C-alpha cells in the first residue's frame, strides 16, 4: 500500500489529529496485512487509500473503526486510543 503525507490547506482549529496511526501492524497468522503504517489526518483533510487487492486497505479501515485490533502499534481518534 502506498501512502502520501499531506498537510491541511487551511490552519486547523486543533493541533490534535482527528485520526493518528503510529507503526500499526496487522498479521493474520504468518501473513502481514498491514506493515508499520503511520499517518495523521487533520480536520478538513481528505484521505484516500489506494492500492491493489490484498494491500491492507479494508483491514486498515476496519482497525480505525474498531472492528479489528492491530497486532501492534497505536490508533488514536481525537487523541484517544
TrEMBL record:
Pfam families hit by this protein: ABC_tran
Residues annotated as transmembrane: none
Domain of life (superkingdom): Bacteria
Family matches, as SUPFAM superfamilies: P-loop containing nucleoside triphosphate hydrolases
Residues in ABC transporter domain copies: 36-79
Record keywords: ATP-binding, Nucleotide-binding, Transport
GO molecular function, one term: ATP binding
InterPro entries reported for this sequence: ABC_transporter-like_ATP-bd (IPR003439), ABC_transporter_ATP-binding (IPR050763), P-loop_NTPase (IPR027417)
Name of the protein described by the UniProt record: ATP-binding cassette domain-containing protein
Amino acid at each position: 500500500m502506498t501512502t502520501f503525507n499531506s498537510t491541511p490547506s487551511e490552519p486547523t482549529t486543533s493541533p490534535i489529529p482527528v485520526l493518528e496511526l503510529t507503526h500499526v501492524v496487522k498479521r493474520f497468522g504468518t501473513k502481514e496485512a498491514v506493515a508499520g503504517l503511520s499517518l495523521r489526518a487533520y480536520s478538513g483533510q481528505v484521505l484516500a487509500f489506494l492500492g491493489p487487492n490484498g494491500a491492507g486497505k479494508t483491514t486498515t479501515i476496519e482497525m480505525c473503526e474498531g472492528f479489528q485490533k492491530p497486532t501492534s502499534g497505536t490508533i488514536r481518534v481525537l487523541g484517544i486510543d
